[in-house]
Design goal:
The chain is an alpha+beta fold. It has 4 helices and 8 strands, in the order E-H-E-E-E-H-H-E-E-H-E-E. The chain has helices at 39-42, 57-70, 72-75, 114-132, and strands spanning 25-36, 45-46, 49-52, 55-56, 86-93, 99-109, 140-150, 156-157. The strands form 2 sheets. It has a 5-stranded antiparallel sheet with strand order 5-6-1-7-8, covered by helices on one side. A 3-stranded antiparallel sheet has the order 2-3-4. Helix 2 runs antiparallel to helix 4. The relative contact order is 0.26.
């Protein structure tokens, strides 16, 4: 199978993908981002939240992620603007003591919501960094990746 970049014309110029012939289907995507915080910040974790002088870190990051998902097409030039039926962002500290940010975006449309879910977790991770950098710059955004997508031509589920 000869794969081609969908956002390039036959002459190599950028273009928005033509979705006019696609069927409207329910589509969803889930993405995750992991953030490593230094112990001095993690020690402030209490009752599912880290409260600093700037305010509740996770609550603010959740709002930032949701807001960013709605603006994905304004941030990434060739993304279609799509109406979101839902965007849910969850933040926990996992057993490795990493901040785990998960976002699920859902729509009914002609194109998927992978970029909306990825944008949500990315901006939430950046918000955590911004709000915690006064304590330490030893914060690492370790990974951001798509976990799953459904609807459209084919479904996807990450293997690891």
């Amino acid at each position: 199978m000869d794969k081609k970049f969908s956002h390039l014309t036959s002459k190599g110029n950028p273009t928005i993908v033509d979705i006019s012939d696609k069927a409207i289907t329910k589509r969803s995507a889930t993405a995750v981002s992991l953030v490593k915080l230094p112990t001095e910040i993690l020690d402030k974790f209490e009752k599912d939240e880290i409260n600093l002088s700037k305010g509740p870190i996770f609550y603010t990051a959740i709002l930032a992620g949701i807001m960013a998902s709605k603006k994905t097409s304004e941030l990434i030039p060739l993304c279609h603007p799509i109406p979101l039926n839902k965007c849910e962002v969850k933040i926990t500290i996992n057993k490795e003591r990493l901040v785990e940010i998960t976002a699920t975006a859902i729509t009914e449309g002609k194109t998927g919501v992978e970029m909306e879910a990825l944008t949500a977790v990315s901006v939430a991770a950046l918000t955590i960094y911004d709000m915690c950098k006064g304590f330490s710059h030893e914060i690492e955004i370790l990974q951001t990746k798509l976990i799953s997508k459904t609807g459209g031509k084919r479904d996807y589920h990450a293997t690891s």
